[in-house]
Every structure is written in structure tokens, then in C-alpha cells.
Amino acid sequence: MTEFFPGIGNIPFEGPESRNPLAFKYYRADQKVLGKTMRDHLRFSVAYWHAFRGTGGDPFGPGTIVRPWEKGGDPVEMAIVRVRAAFEFMRKLGTPFYCFHDRDIAPEGKTLAESNRNLDAVIKVVKEQQAETGIKLLFGTANLFSNPRYMNGASTNPDAHVFAFAAAQVKKMMEVTLELGGENYTFWGGREGYQTLLNTDMRRELNHMAKFLGMAAAYKKEIGYAGTLLIEPKPKEPTKHQYDFDAATVIGFLRQYGLEREFKLNLECNHGTLAGHTFHHEVELASRYGMLGSVDANSGDTMLGWDTDQFPMDVKEAAMTMRVLLNQGGLGSGGFNFDAKLRRESTDLEDLFIAHIGGMDTLARGLLIAAKIREEGVLDSMLQDRYSSWESGIGVEIERGKTDFKALERWALAEGEPKSLSGRQERYENLLNGYL
Ligand code: XLS
Ligand code: CA
Ligand code: CA
Hints:
- By secondary structure, the protein is α/β, with parallel strands linked by helices.
- The chain folds into 2 domains: 32-376, TIM Barrel; 380-435, no CATH class.
- It is built from 16 helices and 12 strands.
- The strands form 3 sheets. An 8-stranded parallel beta barrel has the order 3-4-5-6-8-10-11-12, surrounded by 4 helices. The protein has a two-stranded antiparallel sheet with strand order 1-2.
- The longest helix has 28 residues, at 349-376.
- One calcium ion (CA) binds at residues 188, 232, 268, 296, 339.
- One calcium ion binds at residues 268, 270-271, 307, 309, 339.
């Protein structure tokens, strides 16, 4: 059996004092945090498209990352070799999940039928590898954005032919996801958006997108797929305005079309920040509406206005996100998928391990911090206290809908001016910093 990562064994846990780049400092899969192992809290996943198809290419130059197993030749055979390399990597890293698009795991053929055959041939090996390693599919997804046929969108394409083609591609990929026991199926609206409203019938396109998603929900039932359907928001790139702008927009869209019970959200950190939000804003909003399904864990660069898909390294942001996760009682069938790529300059094979180790440690550290905050309860009781006026008297009457404007006017006239209540932001911030 070929070894693709010779010299690198299973990544051990060595603790925060370790300076070994190929060891975990915080992530210890079996360690229990609030009664659950880190493995089960975090459900880490590797993104096939970055980890095994990323080459470091950018608009100014070609790829710089060359893997020793990428020898060319028959594209299906090459895809199968790559699958073996990926499973060795994930087994050694210790991630329980992975994700892929149809077109990054198997090559697209000249016709849809040939593409489907290619996919079937590769999936056969993927299935064997899953059984051998116990590594599972977090989500399957279809690439509806790379092929030029999708340049004007897939389900929002002005051409119905393209809509039908995209539907056929998603149908197949949903079947593959079912066959592999994938726990979720993700829709990221690749080119579902517009470059100019001059050539765009926006409402019609949105109606079409809803039709498409409705058909997917119906097909899920038809084939008996029990996983969760996820939508991944992003505000821009590749189109100037993506329809799935952010969590709030997608929730509103789903409700408009009566689809809110069929889908949850897969939130990506870098997409949240591109939309002008912190990531924890996005997860908090989705979670409080019962719509948080899964996370694409990465980060952007505050100095850059595009999707840099870097590994998550911000411990404070991780802690804020993990607070939401703990409040929600876990991600259910979701997980933390490293939709993150190596920098173009990070060309060593071991960089792939080191990058994932860093991301896993950052999120594990965030989890430990969030658990400590929760256990001590100081922050939560400060928050509770801030809203205490809603626990009795007029607050309860308002929340229960037992009052109206006339009654509130009488009450305000009798009670006079409210007292000034400090927001105490600095106190909250100092408290959080104390846990880091
Ligand atoms: C692109 C998206 C994409 C989705 C899956 O920006 O992050 O990779 O996660 O199609
Ligand atoms: Ca993503
Ligand atoms: Ca991204």
C-alpha cells in the first residue's frame, strides 16, 4: 500500500506547552467538556476541495502547491488515488468527517451521463475507504458554479435549460450523499445572484431558486434521505450581489416561500465577515431562530475585501461562537468543516496537517473557554440581570401581550422617567478577556 504522508503518524495530543508543530495543544478528542467529548462537540470535517484540489492558484499566477501523488494520467484513476491520499490524511489527523463537491472528487465528463459514471466509479472507492476508516461524510454538495454553463447562475439562470441541467446534477449528488450516509446536503448559491439589475429579473430569479429548493426538499422525501438540507449564505463573490446574502436574508427568503422547515443554515465565518457581520452574530442569529445547522470554519483577513478562506486562528471569536454552540446544545447533524485553504506560499506537504491542527486547536480552545464561562455563570447572570425588568410587572405584561398603547401610556405617566441603566460593555469585555 502506498503511503502518501510518509514520516507523519497519527497526530498526538501533547498539551499547551508542546512546541511540536505536528501535535495538538488543546484538541483532545476523548476529553469530556460539559459531559460530552470534544470529538462529539466539534465534529471536525476536512473540505476536500481545498485540502485535495487546492493548488494555490490565484488570479495573478498558477498553482504553487504540487502533491507527489498528482501524476496526471487517466482522470478517474487519478481521482481514486487522491481519495486514498485524502483518507490517509484524515485518519492521521483524526477528523471524523469530510465534505466534497461532485466535481472535486470525480472529474466532469463530456456529457452528464459520463460525469455520473465517473462519479459512481470514484464513489465506490470512497465507500470502501469510509468503511475501512470509520470517517463519515458531513455533507455532500454539487458544484453548480465552475463549469461555464453556469456563468449566469444555476437555478437562477435566465435559461430554463440550465435550470434543468442543474436539477439533474443535484438529483445525482443527493443520491450519492444518501448512498454514502452523508449527514447533510449543502446548497451554496455559487453564481445565484447578479452583476447588474439592468439585465436581471430579480423576483423571477428568486422564484426559480425557491422552486429549485422546493424540488430538492421533495426529492429528499422521495428517496428517503433523512439528513439535513443546508443553505450556505454569502453576500458577494463571484457575483456582485449573491441572493443568499447572510443568515437573516436566507431565513427571510425561506419563510417567504414556505421552505423554513425544510432547510437549516451552513454558516461560513468568512462569508459572515464579508457581509459586514462578526461570525458570532451570524451563528447567534441563526441559532436563536432554530436555523443553525452547521459551520464552515475559516476566517477572512480584516484588511481584504474578499473570501480568503484562511484557517480559523482567532481564539476570542472561537469562544464567542462556541458559546452559541453550547447554548444551542450542539450542532445536531452538523459539524465544523474546515472550508479553509493553505496560503499560496505554504507549499510543504506537512503544512496541510499543521494548518488543520491550528484550526482544530483554536476551536477546541474556544470550546474550553466557552465551557468555563458557562460553568462559572458570571457573564450569563450579568446578562440575565440586564433584562430583569422583563421578569415581573409591566415587562411580563408586555411580553405576554396583556397590555396595549393606552395602558402603557397610563403606566408611563404614573411612573415617570426610567432610570439610566449602564450597558457596562467594558465590564463584559474585560470579563471575556479574563478567560482567554
Ligand atoms: C464558496 C463556498 C463553497 C461552499 C460549498 O465560497 O464556501 O466552498 O462551502 O459549495
Ligand atoms: Ca463554505
Ligand atoms: Ca468561502
